[in-house]
Amino acid sequence: xxxxxxxxxxxxxxxxxxxxxxxxxxxxxxxxxxxxxxxxxxxxxxxxxxxxxxxxxxxxxxxxxxxxxxxxxxxxxxxxxxxxxxxxxxxxxxxxxxxxxxxxxxxxxxxxxxxxxxxxxxxxxxxxxxxxxxxxxxxxxxxxxxxxxxxxxxxxxxxxxxxxxxxxxxxxxxxxxxxxxxxxxxxxxxxxxxxxxxxxxxxxxxxxxxxxxxxxxxxxxxxxxxxxxxxxxxxxxxxxxxxxxxxxxxxxxxxxxxxxxxxxxxxxxxxxxxxxxxxxxxxxxxxxxxxxxxxxxxxxxxxxxxxxxxxxxxxxxxxxxxxxxxxxxxxxxxxxxxxxxxxxxxxxxxxxxxxxxxxxx
Length: 361
What we know:
Blueprint: H1 2-8, H2 13-40, H3 51-74, H4 79-97, H5 105-127, H6 130-154, H7 158-163, H8 173-176, H9 179-183, H10 192-200, E1 204-209, H11 211-216, H12 219-231, E2 235-240, H13 250-257, E3 265-267, H14 268-271, E4 280-284, H15 293-296, E5 315-320, E6 340-344, H16 347-359
């Protein structure tokens, strides 16, 4: 530590700015990333409507900024002062990420990735390491670019994502209503055998992968089913929402692993005009990215978010393990549409059973 201080000129304004950036950004990134992982795994929820939590975060932010200013103006290199500042920033990372919920989490993942690069670059200035500066700058710049792309895909501004301006609170009846009451008696259930009969006469089939496909590791099973359908003359394509899954590009990576031809993967803008002509759209574990409320309910907390228009297909088959809400925490009206069927079960098992049933037709 003392070697780094002497090498870079402790007390200089450049060194002070670099060490402050390294502490603040690095600490926020560390705890923010841990919270993001726990939220994505479902171990913790969000607290976007908890005023006490927001108050604590605001106080922490003010204290962290005050501590950083005092450190910069005093020129002190006291380990105790640095430890206190690190502690405040670690707590701030938790407070900033914890309230963010809904489908905005992929944006946060991209932003945290950018933070890690910026923290690395700042540390490179502190240590006088040019390799770290260059690598950190590249990671930070690419992360910020990806964040901007994700915000555009979500129809969100970055301040709205960070401060809950869009997802914080909702008067939507659907979001306030108990899920059991919302779906009670309205969902039409089907079996893999029913799905096989439906697909037997389909000419255009669209697969819509989501987080459920990733959890079930069903990418190879969907490829096997697609091969069977293509052998019967059907045209199969895959609708890829930019924030499907739990991170940017999640679905593309999984489908590439199963060696699905790249030209069959179509992004949202390309596939939406084709969905009204689709005989069957099979939703594999996706939820918020196919929720019609985003386009039809102005009171919905996800209203305005671009979605895949699977509800416009002739028949929609939703494969999910349960009727649980998506990460946005609201029921999905797609499940009770007149043209929708629900096949409950693990995506991999359902697809394999459907493929076996088709082979026997």
